[in-house]
Target: GAF domain-containing protein
Amino acid sequence: MNSEQIAAALAEFDAAIAKTTDADAVWTALQTLSRQVIGAKLFTIMTVDMVNEVARRAYTSHPAEYPTSGTKPIRYDSWFDIVHKAHQTFVANTIADIAKVFPDHETIWSLGCGSVANIPVVVGGELLGTVNCLDVEHHYTPERVALSKHLELPAKLAFLAAARAEKK
Model:
């Protein structure tokens, strides 16, 4: 993806965010942007509540397999260290590597996904959640991971816009 394509995708995202007051529309706009910039067969948004040590799925491209209801406990593992502590993108490019940190790896595999990029969304030094992009094995090459940097600022905007929409 070249800089003109990235600029066009960002402008499309900005226009979508500017028009909506609906949280799902905000997430859909971020999903579209993510698919354009780095690709994602499966796309989810997780929010984090560290006070209660739980994560909640706020949005999903696959509601049957990954519903937005309920919470799951925060797990303290190598993934936590990378995403929560270091605020770095976690990348696994094989289902074997995914299986090391995600107990739902069989569901991920059944959806045709074997790689993941979990992009942390940090505002004011606090992790608000993650943007989770999954695709076929070996999809998240170093080039695509570098391109994922273009999603960080829009993701912050999406988290804040969705939170504002949910308050209305």
About this structure: Strands lie at 42-49, 54-60, 71-73, 90-92, 115-123, 126-135. The longest helix spans residues 3-19. The chain has one domain: 3-167. Helices lie at 3-19, 23-37, 78-85, 95-99, 105-110, 142-147, 152-167.
